[in-house]
Design goal:
The chain is an alpha+beta fold. It is 29% helix and 31% strand. The structure holds coenzyme A.
Amino acid sequence: MESLHETTLRGSAVYLRPLLPSDAQDLLALRVRNRTSFARFEPIPTESHFTLDGQLAEIDRALEDAQFDRRYAFGIFTIAEDRVAGRIALSNVARGAWQNATVGYYVDSACSNRGYATEALRLVLRFAFADAGLHRVQAGVLPENTASARVLEKAGFRREGISLRYLNIFGEWRDHLMYAITVEEWDEETPGYA
Ligand SMILES: CC(C)(COP(=O)(O)OP(=O)(O)OC[C@H]1O[C@@H](n2cnc3c(N)ncnc32)[C@H](O)[C@@H]1OP(=O)(O)O)[C@@H](O)C(=O)NCCC(=O)NCCS
C-alpha cells in the first residue's frame, strides 16, 4: 500500500483523504455546530475534542495509527467546494486470521441526504478490500439511527443481528444493530465508485 499521506479516494460528489493539521480549524467548526445532533448517536467525546488543540492531537494520533496499521481515518471533502463535510474511519484493524475493521463516520447536518456518507462508505470499502487487504468490515448502529442503517444497506452491508449493551452512548450501555460485509460480497461496480 502507498503511504496513507498520498492516498486520495475520489468519488463523484466527495473525495477522501487523510486529515491534516491544516484541516483542524474547519473540522472543529463542524464538530461544534453538530455537537447536539451527533450526541444521540456517538460515544461522548472528551471536552478537549471541542478545542483546536484537541483536534490537532486527534489528527496526529490518526496519522500515527495509520503508520502502524491500527486505524485509517479520512476526511470527507466535497468536490464542488473542496470543503470538509465529515469524517470516516476504519478502526480496530485486526490482522491474522480475522483481517477485520470497524467503520464509523459522520457527515455535517448542513449537507445531509446528498449521498455523501454513502459514497464515502463505498470509497472506504474499496480502500479496505483493495488497498488494505482486509477481509471484513463491520459497523454497529443504534436502532433509532435509521439514516445510518440506510447508508450501510446502500453500501452493501448485511444486517447480522443485535449486540446487547455494545457501546456507551450518552452515558448508557446501548444495544446496537450489527452490520458487516466481507470481500466476497463486495461489488466494486456499485454506482458511486469513481
Ligand atoms: C448518518 C449520517 C452519516 C448520514 O449521512 P448522509 O450524508 O446524510 O447520508 P446519505 O445522504 O448518504 O444517505 C442517507 C439516507 O438515509 C435516509 N434518511 C435520512 N434521514 C432518515 C430518517 N430520519 N429516517 C429514515 N431514513 C432517513 C435518506 O433518505 C438517505 O436514504 P435514500 O438515499 O434511500 O433516500 C449523518 O446523518 C450523520 O453524521 N449522523 C450523525 C452521526 C452518526 O449517526 N454516525 C453514524 C454512527 S453509526
